Task: structure prediction
Amino acid sequence: MSNIAILSVNHQLAPVAIREKVAFSQSELAPAISSLLSTQEIKACVVLSTCNRSEIYVTYDAENIREVLTKFLASIHGIEYSSLLQYVSYFEGNQAIEHICNVAAGLDSLVLGEPQIFGQLKEAYQFSKDLGALDKILEKLFQHAFKTAKKVRTDTSIGSSPVSVAYCAVKLSEKIFTNLASQTVLLIGTGEMIELSAQHLSKRGVTDIIFANRTLENTQSLAMKYEAEAITLKSLSENLHRADIVISSTAAPIPIIGKGLIETVLIHRKHQPMLLIDLAIPRDIEPEANQLEDVFLYTVDDLQQVADGHLEDRIKEKVIAQEIIRAQNLNFIVWLNNIPNEEVIKNYRRQANLLKDELLQIAIRKLESGSSPDLVVEELADKLTNKLLHKTFQNIKNSKNIKLDSTNISSETKKKYTDISN
Result:
């Protein structure tokens, strides 16, 4: 039977400088999944890559899968294996099941309870499914995680307030610029983070917004929605000086704003302060830009303090959410542990059909040779009964007891399971 494992490099252990090294661009996902599946030990896989984490979800049949996955991640990104080890988190079995549910519910996010990760995880799952990279177990695991995350959202208030990375970026802007509504904001990219940033800015009365993207077609509809201006990245150097605040979140493999460009822009602005918030992994803005006076440069990791200001109530809800997850996981663990029984049944049915066909052919040949039909039928019945009983007794002797592995589930959770799952 295949086992479940997850390898993760996330914000809890790895800084931005490491996370951007192990991030997968959209064009790199398919080759990475293909490479993983070509590894004999890996049966199925999903790759998730966001600004806060790169994770590999697999079913496998090997003893050294942690080493296999870590070496793969290091090799595909050209990183030294030993230098990556300190930033890697690894989960298997029940811990892996709990981890994916925590991720899906936003409990493992930099901003506790943020809802964007659910959609990102679903996209990663669908991408692997379209490539045929899932098996029965991984398919069921992700469906279980999505269902459990929805229950957490429904039964707790973990996601009730509008805290997200984009929300924190706008809150940070308010700390730097007291009168946010009077500032010009440049939003670079067209993804969910940029649209959420636009929503929060608009609610705070910001009307002077510029959207920038590689092509105008992809950003004009968003600009029209907020009565904003749309420009291309090619014209960024001509327009950057207009922005008091820049929030950037693209999928560019290298920085699109360098220190040199910022130096030129500051001269044009007569050194009026600029706030740069880089939400991208890999980073969109060269970190050296922070060395310049009159520049305030922040990355996603710097938003932690803003997020922590809204943390107290969410911590209480997190405890409830984790109890729900552990209770829901009991169902999945039972299903997972019953798979060997299903395999025994399938094998037994296949063997029984082969045996039936074999004995039937013998009986037909005897009838064709003139043997007594009564004796042939009786002999067929006796042989079929004896052989089937022999296989049954053999399976009973050789079968192993399959026990529910629930060592990391509290007794209180087990007692509450019936109430919560209902």
Residues 340-421 form one domain. The first strand starts at residue 3 and ends at 10. Confidence is low (pLDDT under 50) at residues 400-409, 413-422. The longest helix spans residues 312-368.
